[in-house]
Amino acid sequence: MTLQNLTIAFIGLGRIGSGIAKNVQASGCQLVVYNRTPQKTQPFVAAGAKAASMPREAAASADIVITCLMDDQSVIDVLSGPDGILAGLRRGAIHIGTSTISPHATTRIAALHHQHGSHYVAAPVLGRPDAAAAGRLSTFVAGNREIVERARPVLETYTQKIFGLGEDHSRAASMKLAANFFVVSFLELMGQAFTFADKRGVLEPMTDLLKAFLGPMGEYVDRISNRRYDTPGFTLDAGLKDVRLILEAAGEVQVPLPFASLIRDKCLAAQARGFGQQDWCVFTEISRLEAGQAPR
Amino acid sequence: MTLQNLTIAFIGLGRIGSGIAKNVQASGCQLVVYNRTPQKTQPFVAAGAKAASMPREAAASADIVITCLMDDQSVIDVLSGPDGILAGLRRGAIHIGTSTISPHATTRIAALHHQHGSHYVAAPVLGRPDAAAAGRLSTFVAGNREIVERARPVLETYTQKIFGLGEDHSRAASMKLAANFFVVSFLELMGQAFTFADKRGVLEPMTDLLKAFLGPMGEYVDRISNRRYDTPGFTLDAGLKDVRLILEAAGEVQVPLPFASLIRDKCLAAQARGFGQQDWCVFTEISRLEAGQAPR
Amino acid sequence: MTLQNLTIAFIGLGRIGSGIAKNVQASGCQLVVYNRTPQKTQPFVAAGAKAASMPREAAASADIVITCLMDDQSVIDVLSGPDGILAGLRRGAIHIGTSTISPHATTRIAALHHQHGSHYVAAPVLGRPDAAAAGRLSTFVAGNREIVERARPVLETYTQKIFGLGEDHSRAASMKLAANFFVVSFLELMGQAFTFADKRGVLEPMTDLLKAFLGPMGEYVDRISNRRYDTPGFTLDAGLKDVRLILEAAGEVQVPLPFASLIRDKCLAAQARGFGQQDWCVFTEISRLEAGQAPR
Amino acid sequence: MTLQNLTIAFIGLGRIGSGIAKNVQASGCQLVVYNRTPQKTQPFVAAGAKAASMPREAAASADIVITCLMDDQSVIDVLSGPDGILAGLRRGAIHIGTSTISPHATTRIAALHHQHGSHYVAAPVLGRPDAAAAGRLSTFVAGNREIVERARPVLETYTQKIFGLGEDHSRAASMKLAANFFVVSFLELMGQAFTFADKRGVLEPMTDLLKAFLGPMGEYVDRISNRRYDTPGFTLDAGLKDVRLILEAAGEVQVPLPFASLIRDKCLAAQARGFGQQDWCVFTEISRLEAGQAPR
């Protein structure tokens, strides 16, 4: 399968989606783009893509559809109904879902494709917008082995590391949530640790220590140590959605996650202060405020 | 200062201390050893060290005294009183303290030396027994600049990386506690994340992911993922002491550390189950049990 | 409005519902009953009620419909669709909703009635099955003032104390959730306090003290002090649903409720141990187990 | 034992102590008073008491000594040393300790008296300054049965309800800490519940409901609902001391108390904002601030 011969529909051109789409387009395939607010399609059209006016139309000519959307509901919505992907998609086509959604929504989406005669590849991505633009995301992938192999060259256009999770689609979602739980707890941990270090007079060496130890998370070390939450790669409002998915997925299998519960509370406290559209690690600011440090 | 011409007294030959002492002895200095239970001095005596019968005697001939003890009280006790270090130590000698103790005890110990005419180098170490034996510990060092320089060749015999914290002794203690807080929260995070991953069917890939990401903490990844807490490098009972130091040091500067509070509770729950002498990361087992997994 | 002239439809004859219905029937009205599992209607039919085979049929002849159901979805379901209440209810009739549901579902249900030309009285009840059977529940009531006055004689058949919350229906739901949050936190508090008291040797006097102080919650004091969670008035599985409603309603207005987050985790831990069908205060057992006390 | 024939020494005339002492003096005994800042003794001297210049002097003529002090250390200090109580107290005399101190300090104090040939009655009180002044405190009492009986008439001058805990002195301390844990958790619960109620628009009915339910805690209901923390009966700084005693006493018997851990963090956050000298329930203000409500 050479990418040059493929038609790929891309739906959802947000911060992450536009970065992925740019790399997909650079592979030489024919790209069809759809976005709810159409102006975001312009750079892609300027580079040779076609713009579709609804998901159905985008899917109609596609060998592969990629979605990069907000949450369970938005993926279900874009898939279903008279204007949805399934209304246009041909049998045998493949849908690559890059969004962070729940395991049960993942299973449901895979079933809808199965019914339709098309294929779903669960492929949520880990990484921030700059990693998406640079083609350096990580992808957790699950689905029918042969279908995943067919999708792999596409995944490789924007992914640095692919983690195979087997054939059960929902495992890719579970793994993504486990990874997100790890990352978000890490951020909270930095918030607490830097507050402690700051008030005990060792913020600078603690920042250096963590930078040495946490290469791949260096951007967060800087943001949280310096209390800089502007120019968001991912907003707090979106981050709280992910924390809720984690809590829900853990609750379904009776796993208490006290760190996630605490972080949910910190996110709410940050929203209550009007930080919802800042970078999602802004919830760590609550540790600073609770310790009596002056607001930025 | 060549180490061959120095007499170094080493007090406290526990799991970490014996590793450090071995490296110090290998540097060619004259070693004098003291331990509360004397049989632990035997391998060092066999290799040429002298054994002292009390701290005072060990300190009497020493250019440098190194202590590796349990807690604030044990350092204060070994320093003071008619049989203590200060009763024997000559003016101008240096005491290197490698234990994890509180910032205020550190300040008090430095003051006792100042009064006595000797010098304190606060130098708590980070690392497990195997790192101590291999001379690969990290050391957070604070004290008078010139004295620290004189101590550096000794520190280098057992330390891979030295973090300088300036002249205020207590900053080395604060930094060590900040680092310990980071590590212990990390362990708890792994406990929660692995429990989630296990019950959602993605324990193996999650373990692989963390191993790739967390090189220096790989041993803990294995222990916690596999629920193996025997052959302790550091016991839960000792670990709980450190968590209490963290909470106390944070409380002194009005910093809430909810992760540390939670971990204290987990440590108590682990002690209540009789896990006090297992490896300190055994408190992560509580996450497993709370999620209904069978005891090991 | 004398109750003898009214036809009242009662839908949902569970532990609480059957107690309420018994008191309503005793008032002398004509009762029509519906329950998903029909055998629960028998005692009411034996006492003169009519049994309906679907909600629509129950509602068709009713001046007032009372529902006592599990959650948001079950109330919406019983109201809507071809067999639902609204398909049969005449304009001007009144629906009294006694279930603990979310504020937003409450608002939505009121709107459905408004569209239909009928009236909704939000009237969630506080109390256990024995209080329901004895007509000693508390009710939080909200809705159009005149409609609430018309419903009041019916409420009084099973309610000891009516708290008026004004015309905004959702306020009754918010108030019920606030009260539930208070009660459930109280239970958890007893769990922790009794564990502490027990292990410090003062369980008996602590139990006596709380009994003296907490008259209306004496049953819970006994259950939790004695670790007796059988013969549930309300199950843990149902209780967890309420905790989730509380967290959701608090999250909507950006209020962190760390006690509720903790209790959610305790409920999950209790479910993971298979306690889901015991009395809801069984989540307090987790405090006992965490402190190393032997399982009952 | 008629009180008129007794000489009673009273040490510690703070907010609670002065209320107790007033009631003791009103019983007709001969009162000797000592306080670290002597001006607080004036009203008692004006009413016929003698003022002593040190604890030893106060104790010298006393049949019974009552202490009402801050913490473990202050009780130990006032008891020991050349100017302490024991340096003056005659054999057979009784010491009634009303302070909230740790179980192990209680045991140690009882042992000091035993050695000395005098008697200790552990008698920590529950209640605020107004209850002390009105003679309506509760007392948890433990000690030798006969000695407790001899002390009872004195206790009754300022106590409404006496809870007997048996002969092991430390049980009175444990019981007081269990009761304090209950109360302080209650305050935090109100803070969370009122914040929820306020932001959902039901603060007023929730306040009314709690007032009806919580008669004896009505003052706190008002304070926390109205966010009024001035004119402290008991300061936050003192309250945090009690929370630490609770956590320590629970830790000694391996009982995690997550509510107490959370409240400790709230107290630190309140101290960090400079609230240390306001009424201790001011830590509930943190719930308000975390939910984004404007500072008072």
What does this structure look like?
4 copies of one chain form a homotetramer. By secondary structure, chain A is α/β, with parallel strands linked by helices. Chain A is built from 14 helices and 9 strands. The first copy, chain A, has helices spanning 15-26, 42-46, 55-60, 72-79, 85-88, 103-116, 129-133, 145-158, 169-199, 203-213, 218-226, 236-252, 258-272, 285-290, and strands at residues 7-11, 30-34, 50-51, 64-67, 94-97, 119-122, 125-126, 137-141, 159-164. Chain A has a 6-stranded parallel β-sheet, sandwiched between helices. A 3-stranded mixed β-sheet of chain A has the order 7-8-9. In chain A, strand 5, helix 6 (103-116) and strand 6 form a beta-alpha-beta unit. The longest helix of chain A is centred in the middle third of the chain and has 31 residues, at 169-199. The N and C termini of chain A lie far apart (53 Å). The relative contact order of chain A is 0.10.
- Overall helicity of chain A: 40-55%
Quaternary state, please?
homotetramer
User: How many whole angstroms does the radius of gyration of chain A measure?
Assistant: 20 Å
Report the end-to-end length of chain A measured between terminal Cα atoms.
53 Å
Helix/strand-derived category of chain A reads alpha/beta
Strand order of the largest sheet of chain A: 3-2-1-4-5-6
* Sequence stretches where pLDDT stays below 50 over 5 or more residues of chain A: none
Beta-strand content estimate of chain A: 5-15%
Average pLDDT reading of chain A: 95
**Number of helices in the DSSP assignment of chain A:** 14
Please provide the count of β strands of chain A: 9
Largest sheet of chain A: 6 strands, parallel
Order of helices and strands of chain A: EHEHEHEHHEHEEHEHEHHHHHH
Q: List the chains of the largest interface with their residue counts.
A: A-B, 49 and 49 residues
Q: Based on CA inertia axes, which overall geometry of chain A fits?
A: elongated
